[in-house]
Specification:
Layout: E1 8-10, E2 17-19, E3 24-28, E4 34-37, E5 45-49, H1 53-61, H2 64-69, H3 75-90
Antiparallel strand pairs: 1-2, 3-4, 3-5
């Protein structure tokens, strides 16, 4: 009997490897819009982050999202992601 492989992804904030289901996917859509994808199935380039605001702050400080998406990200995008993350944490 074989064990099922658990897919791991790295958080761009704390840089820890965690199971994919524990992380939230940040997606850059083809229209260069940034959204949080809690289903993990939306179209676009993705990066993974823990479901805590501390990791989002770390990702902003160490430019983790900018490295993943190969572009500069404005402060407004981080603010929008923070409010979306707050909504997800409450539900």
């Amino acid at each position: 009997m074989t064990n099922k492989k658990i897919p791991l992804r790295q958080c761009v904030g704390c840089m820890e490897m965690k199971p994919k289901k524990e992380l939230i996917r940040v997606v850059r859509t083809p229209e260069d819009e940034f959204i949080l994808d809690d289903t993990g199935k939306k179209n676009g380039r993705g990066a993974y982050i823990c479901s805590s605001r501390e990791c989002l702050k770390k990702a902003e400080k160490n430019h983790g999202l900018e490295r993943s998406f190969h572009m500069t990200i404005s402060r407004e995008v981080y603010d929008a992601l923070s409010t979306e993350l707050e909504k997800i944490e409450q539900s």
